[in-house]
Amino acid sequence: MAHSAVPVTARWPDAASAVLVLVLTLGTLGAVAWRAEWDAGLASADWAAIRFTVLQALLSALLSVLLAIPVARALARRRFWGRQLLITLLGAPFLLPVIVAVLGLLAIFGRAGLLNDVLASLGIAPISIFGLHGVVLAHVFFNMPLAVRFILQGWLSIPAERFRLAASLNAPIWRLLEWPMLRAVVPSTFLVIFLLCLTSFAVALTMGGGPRATTVELAIYQAVRFDFDLGRAALLACIQFVLCVLGAALAWRVTGNDPVGTGLDRVVQRWDLARPAVDYCVIVLAAIFLLLPLAMIVLRGLPEVLNMPVMVWAAALRSVFVALGSAALCICMALALALRGGLMVSVVGVMPLAASGLVVGTGAFLLVFPFIRPADVALLVTILVNATLALPFALRSLAPAVAQIKQDYGRLALSLGIAKTSWVRLVILPRIRRPLGFSAGLAAALSMGDLGVIALFAGQSEETLPLAMYRLMGAYRMGSAAGAALLLVALSFALFWICDRWGRTDADM
Amino acid sequence: MLICEKLVLQQGSFSLSADVAFAAGKAVALIGPSGAGKSTLLAAIAGFLAPASGRLQWDDVDLTDMAPGERPVSMLFQDNNLFPHLTAAQNVGLGLRPDLRLNADDRAVAAIALTDVGLAGFDDRKPRDLSGGQQSRVALARVLVADRPVVLLDEPFAALGPAMKDEMLDLVKAKLIAAGKTVIMVTHDPADAQRMAGMAALVAAGEVSAPVATDVLFDNPPPALKAYLG
């Protein structure tokens, strides 16, 4: 009889996690496929939605990457005060609730925003942010920092010795070192962002709309909420699924990067830096583009925080509850799957990446609708879906840590007879505090800011904070919306910070 | 007595056969070129590698199908012998209770064992606050308290300096063998074998030879050992 090289743990937690993920991804897909009205076929509006979805994602990814290259280049070769802080901030949009960023962008580019104030004083007609360019603008705001981090990583992965060698040979650094690096890094970055933009419902909801700027996900939402045409919603959900799978299949082949990677505090030493002014201009412009909308949220939100309607506070409480529930569920599932390891787990772990919150939500809606009023289970479904959608990120940080512990201490534990719960309690949990805290914080923050499934399910009394904020914006109560935005962003970052902090303190490595 | 009865171990194309017995309460050094299978034999005795055929027996108990944690065997590896997040006393306590639910008696036993290996009062230190030699002593204290008569040493002192390594070998001799443990240790250094063990067994050419007195083995080395010693 061969013995496993790692201590045995109970089987049911990972089986239960896998089943939940499969139900929420394949199960909901089955539901939409079954309910889809295939006979109706695609109307011209549907084709327009597909075209718009792909077009905006292509443009967003292209612009994000193009703008990111000079920023990453400048960051890679300049050392200045606040550099590390700026790089840390580049990771922030990942945690920033979409709706908050949208409100911040509206404060700059919106109808009553700073830009139009300036234009008006110059006697130029105001511009409108809504439509394709608004969607792309918001996507660039979110994904340009991500692209900068990916590309900066590429720049810093070029060994310093090569720069030295190139300098001593007086060889063209661009052609010899930088171009090959970009050719390797840029396509994968582009695809990841393209995929993210295919499934960013909240941006389309707030910045898009109308026949010329409706994404497939937005069309699903409208079919459920306004027309209550579930057959059409299901058909659209199938289309969205196909789009996501095609995108994910492309991205899967070319990626493996960590979206919140660390180790970017190095500066490449260079000998060919004639014009620092250009680099610093690029850095300042990027910083303004990223920080100004956030500053506007704080500026406009701060005076409003204390006189927000009670329903905002109630929604905030609900959101914290959802975020904590979803984070707890997410890390339990990730831990169970990571303890199991193996191929099944990596498959289950990436499936949610190809899932769109709206598709999962539509499927869940179809599954519960015949039995319960969807609003009654709005928060529960939101917790389940958010936990599942955050699972790949949690697994990406937990699975390698658990695998390393197994490799380092598995045999020792086995020979000592440490098994099952003792192995998890005595060895695994104390040693994965860092990734555990980080994953919990990530899952909590992502869930806190999520405006997807909840929009399909919730009535007035199940509103989460992002949804309450969206409805305030819809009612043109911009002051209260700004207050809610400030509260939302503060809660999101606080949840992440507390969890991450917990993981860092007293972690004996 | 630990008996390897017509044991055949296989890993890919590598194969090792062992038909030998290790006397209880004695120390045996396994010596031979690297890659000969010394560690493979230990892994099989510890239960990490299932034999392709043959049986493994401790006195009257058949170990062949037993899980590693159930065997009467403690093992020290080349590294990672302590859990870095647990204190010295807790690491020793794992030898008493693998679930670490220690009562006052257990804690007293662990403290005595630490004193025994020269670490009195080090109970609450964590491995990062201990030197390499002290870490090895904690691991030895754990082996000492565990109710397991066989101890396998897979070069756990290889990373220590020569003087420290000799000190550890002397400690193994003074504590483990004195406590009646059966020690089987891997080494590729003849000096270690001579210092520590009364017996030595050659592992070479896919076969484990029967243990003989160390002096005898080195005074009159078989051709395979002669080739290895150079």
What does this structure look like?
The complex is a heterodimer of chains A (509) and B (230). By secondary structure, chain A is mainly α. Chain A has a domain at 7-36 and 308-509: MetI-like (MetI-like fold, Orthogonal Bundle), CATH 1.10.3720. Helix content of chain A is 74%, strand content 0%. Chain A contains 21 helices and no strands. Chain A has helices spanning 12-35, 44-77, 83-90, 98-109, 114-121, 132-156, 160-169, 173-198, 201-207, 216-225, 230-254, 276-301, 310-340, 343-354, 357-368, 378-416, 420-431, 433-448, 453-457, 465-474, 478-504. The longest helix of chain A is centred in the last third of the chain and has 39 residues, at 378-416. By secondary structure, chain B is an alpha/beta fold. Chain B has two domains: 2-72 and 149-229, 3-Layer(aba) Sandwich (Rossmann fold); 82-147. Helices cover 34% and strands 24% of the residues of chain B. Chain B contains eight helices and eleven strands. Chain B has helices at residues 38-46, 88-93, 104-116, 132-145, 162-177, 190-196, 214-219, 223-229, and strands spanning 2-11, 14-22, 27-31, 53-58, 61-62, 73-76, 150-153, 182-187, 199-204, 207-208, 212-213. In chain B, strand 7 (150-153), helix 5 (162-177) and strand 8 (182-187) form a beta-alpha-beta unit. Chain A binds chain B through residues 1-3, 5, 408-409, 411-412, 414-419, 421-422, 426-427, 430-431, 508-509, and chain B through 46-48, 50, 65, 67-71, 73-75, 77, 80-81, 83-86, 94-95, 98-100, 126, 128, 146. Chain B: It holds the Pfam family ABC_tran. Chain B: One of its GO terms (molecular function) is ATP binding.
Provide a concise account of the structure shown.
The complex is a heterodimer of chains A (509) and B (230). Chain A is mainly alpha-helical and 509 residues long.
